[in-house]
Each structure stands twice: as structure tokens, then as C-alpha cells.
């Protein structure tokens, strides 16, 4: 099959100079070509030359993918879809350092900001002093109030009435944990926080069982007879009875 003579023909920016003595892996004749853009000598086969996708040695594609460095102005090859804006790591670190220095302020602006901070600090100290004064007054008033306190004088304390079944002894109190601590010898155990918590939980359990109508309503031969109004309502009721 006769070969088409392409010497002197131009295909895009490629000009055919001479025919080579070998064929490509696809079986087409190879030609030596010169790029009229950069002067580079390349080899292309007949199929590639007639193809519209190859118009140069590749330099035009690289030129389309050039970007300008935002720091030094040097052009560099980069994909159009890439977010890279600098040509090297050095330029990138120098460019980013410009944005991390912060806004430059004049001496008047610095002085104004300093005065504002001092004013805010003084206001905070004044508020803190007022809060401490109010907190001290509230603590003193709470200590003097008969309706506040840690143990039986607490305004939400409940009235408990329990009975020891073997001896039929009844006990009435308004603080279960305190009563258990004061009468720990009645439960044949040592005075520890763990034992107190266990006994208190036992009394709460039988109280709940009694309210729900369950069978287990005793704990270590103890039984809850009554558990009712808070201390405030109890004192109010006793005061009304005295007045009558």
C-alpha cells in the first residue's frame, strides 16, 4: 500500500520535516515534525497527524493551564480547577503570613482600646463586689432564718413516723439521714456514710411499697407508719390550733 507523502504539510502548529523508517505500534508510518510555536522536534504517526485532537507538541496546552502567582507574579503550570494560587511553598507561606499579621492600628486606636478594657475591668470589679456583698447578706439572713438550715429546720423537711416492731417503739422526726446517724446502734452496724445511705434507701423502699400496696413493707423489723406534710405546713397547722 502506497504511503501518503506528508513532507512539508502543516497540521495545526506541527510541520512535517521528513519520513522515518519505522512504524508506530499501531502500524502507521512515523514522521519527524517541528512545532512552530516552540521549535521542539517531535515524532508523530499518520493517524495522530490527521487527528484533530493533536495540534502541537503540547506547549499550547501548557500555556492554557498557566496561572500567575499572587505573591511573586511568576507563571506556573496548574490545573484550571485547582485552588492553588502560588508557584511554590515559599511563596505560599509568605503570602499567608500577610493575612496573619492582623490589622495595623494607630497609637490612638490602641490607646482607646486600652481605656475601654480598663473601664470594663473596673465595671466587672464593681459588679463582683456587689455580688459578694449580696451573697454575704443572703448567707447571714439564711443562718438567722428559722426556716432554713442543713438538718431538721429545712423548709422542705418531711415528717417521718416509724415503729420498731419487736418493742413497738415509735419515733417521729423530720430528717431521716440525721435520725439514722444519731441512732445507728439500733441497726447493729458501724457509723459510715455507706451504711447510712443503705438504711435510708431501705426506709424509702418500704415507704414506696406501702404507698403502692406491695407486700414488703418492713425493713430490718422497722415499718413506716406515716410520711406526710412538710415542716412548714406542720408548723402552720400547729400555730392555727394554738390560736383557736
* Principal-axis shape: elongated
Through-space gap between termini: 135 Å
Number of helices: 7
Note the main sheet: 4 strands, antiparallel
Strand content: 15-25%
What sequence of helices (H) and strands (E) makes up the elements?
A: EEEEHHEEHHEEHHEEH
Instruction: Please compute the radius of gyration using only Cα atoms.
Output: 48 Å
Uncertain segments are none
What is the SS-derived class? alpha+beta
**Order of neighbouring strands in the sheet with most strands:** 1-2-3-4
* Strand segment tally: 10
**On the 0-100 scale, what is the average pLDDT?**
80
Can you characterise this structure?
The protein has 244 residues and is an alpha+beta fold. Among the domains are: 10-86, no CATH class; 158-243, no CATH class. The protein is 41% helix and 22% strand. It is built from 7 helices and 10 strands. It has helices spanning 46-50, 59-64, 89-100, 107-144, 176-182, 193-212, 231-243; strands at residues 10-11, 14-23, 29-35, 41-45, 66-68, 75-77, 158-164, 169-173, 218-219, 222-230. The strands form 3 sheets. It has a 4-stranded antiparallel β-sheet. Helix 5 (176-182) packs across helix 6. The longest helix has 38 residues, at 107-144. It is elongated, with a radius of gyration of 48 Å.
Amino acid at each position: 500500500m502506497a504511503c501518503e507523502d506528508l513532507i512539508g504539510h502543516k497540521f495545526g502548529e506541527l510541520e512535517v520535516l521528513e519520513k522515518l523508517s519505522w512504524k508506530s505500534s499501531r502500524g502507521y508510518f512515523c514522521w519527524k515534525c517541528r512545532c512552530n510555536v516552540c521549535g521542539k522536534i517531535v515524532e508523530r504517526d499518520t493517524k495522530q497527524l490527521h487527528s484533530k485532537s493533536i495540534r502541537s507538541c503540547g506547549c499550547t496546552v501548557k500555556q492554557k493551564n498557566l496561572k500567575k502567582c499572587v505573591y511573586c507574579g511568576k507563571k506556573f503550570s496548574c490545573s484550571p480547577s485547582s485552588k492553588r494560587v502560588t508557584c511554590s511553598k515559599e511563596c505560599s507561606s509568605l503570602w499567608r503570613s500577610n493575612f496573619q499579621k492582623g490589622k495595623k492600628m494607630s497609637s490612638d486606636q490602641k490607646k482607646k482600646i486600652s481605656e475601654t478594657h480598663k473601664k470594663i475591668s473596673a465595671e466587672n470589679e464593681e459588679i463582683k463586689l456587689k455580688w459578694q456583698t449580696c451573697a454575704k447578706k443572703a448567707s447571714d439572713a439564711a443562718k438567722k432564718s428559722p426556716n432554713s438550715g442543713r438538718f431538721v429546720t429545712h423548709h422542705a423537711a418531711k415528717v417521718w413516723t416509724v415503729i420498731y416492731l419487736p418493742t413497738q417503739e415509735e419515733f417521729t422526726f423530720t430528717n431521716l439521714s440525721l435520725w439514722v446517724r444519731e441512732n445507728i446502734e439500733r441497726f447493729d452496724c458501724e457509723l459510715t456514710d455507706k451504711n447510712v445511705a443503705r438504711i435510708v434507701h431501705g426506709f424509702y423502699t418500704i415507704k414506696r411499697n406501702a404507698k403502692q400496696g406491695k407486700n414488703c413493707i418492713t425493713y430490718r423489723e422497722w415499718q413506716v407508719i406515716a410520711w406526710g406534710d412538710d415542716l412548714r405546713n406542720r408548723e402552720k397547722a400547729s400555730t392555727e390550733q394554738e390560736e383557736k
